[in-house]
Amino acid sequence: MKKALITGVTGQDGSYLAELLLEKGYEVHGIKRRASSFNTQRVDHIYQSPQAQCTQDGSNARFKLHYGDLTDTSNLTRIMSEVQPDEVYNLGAQSHVAVSFESPEYTADVDGLGTLRLLEAIRFLGLEKKTRFYQASTSELFGLVQEIPQKETTPFYPRSPYAAAKMYAYWITVNYRESYGMYACNGILFNHESPRRGETFVTRKITRGMANIAQGLEPCLYLGNMDALRDWGHAKDYVRMQWMMLQQEVAEDFVIATGKQISVREFVRMSAAEAGMEVEFSGEGVDEIATVTKVTDSEKAPAISVGDIIVKVDPRYFRPAEVETLLGYPAKARERLGWVPEITVEEMCAEMVESDLDIARRHALLKQHGHSVSVAVE
Ligand code: NDP
Ligand code: GDR
What we know:
Domain NAD(P)-binding: 5-352
Strand order of the largest sheet: 3-2-1-4-5-6-11
Largest sheet: 7 strands, parallel
Number of strands: 15
Order of helices and strands: EHEHEHEHHEHEEHEEEHEEHEEEHH
Shape: globular
Bound molecules: NADPH dihydro-nicotinamide-adenine-dinucleotide phosphate, guanosine-5'-diphosphate-rhamnose
Pfam families: GDP_Man_Dehyd (PF16363)
Number of helices: 11
GO molecular function, one term: GDP-mannose 4,6-dehydratase activity
Strand content: 15-25%
Enzyme class: lyase
Protein name: GDP-mannose 4,6-dehydratase
Structural class: alpha/beta
Radius of gyration: 21 Å
Distance between the termini: 43 Å
């Protein structure tokens, strides 16, 4: 039985990857952080407590969690030594670009040095020939883009502390491959989303915002730069590729993307439509707004009237340096590995809005019955 170790297992990608590897028969070990409240919601459905394992059929006993942190060398080395994994997927990160401007040093420590700590643990324990290593690299490396579309050979130009830290992680992964013959590779992944996406990334913020507004839980959604263009795919397609990258004869780096881009504004329009509202945009820059021109589904959007302003711009969400446009060219992944994304951005958006509408309906019902419902917004 193959063993995998996933950092960031409690995150969006970690949860989908753990499901995939369990389906493939792996023993899966995940590193979770100690937090003051539960942070394992995305993997609770595949986890079985040690007590339950003793009394039930033990079918999910192949999924194990360890407390740990990418800033803690001795902890990582001990877990690596205990697990002796065949594959390590380094998905753990302070992954929010805007937050990295607020916490640049922490981001460098976790996202940059954290990667080095794992590679060094593998080397220190003499696992270089056994353990394959996947690094969650990012299209943010292209930042101020030097070429359109972006492929494996496109020069990097990071535009945030997050991207600069990930650039160190990218090169140290390449360096350990070249220096020590390790099977270590980078997946340069463009944005990928799902109903499990963190609520403060723009797609989820929008789908959740549209659902809450439609159900009367919030009056208006505040966004930053609506001109930004992204190449958005579905996380399920992208974790499949993470696994494929570790099954090759030779370790190589791959760009993973859909090859199509849309703006944040277009994603708003699409999400509003899925939530039963047609909108039009007017005004420019900080004065831009989205107004409802038609209610197409009054069951989904019972709280909405024509003329309601449901999106405004708040400059607080502008970034000190912005990545305006990203568009990937995933030909190498298609040709070498036969990987093609199966879920379109439209399908993904519909799935996210449906999921957020389900949550919003439940909250609206609670509110109707006099319970207080707080809708956290950031
Ligand atoms: P998430 O933000 O959903 O998950 C990040 C994970 O890292 C969480 O499990 C989080 O734990 C964990 N983590 C954060 N800080 C630490 C730390 N100090 N030590 C250990 N673990 C930590 O990210 P995604 O799942 O979306 O992304 C996975 C990886 O892929 C990240 O490295 C991200 O930077 C990268 N990436 C993501 C893309 C995307 O579009 N989703 C595109 C390209 C790259 P907790 O749950 O406790 O917060
Ligand atoms: P990104 O994702 O920075 O590309 O990083 P995010 O969804 O945060 O932003 C995408 C674009 O939308 C613009 N934007 C807003 N963003 C947020 N979060 N909130 C807003 O209100 C808002 N309004 C407009 C942003 O300015 C940006 O241009 C994600 C993360 O998953 C990284 O970890 C990963 O490496 C990259 O994708 C690829």
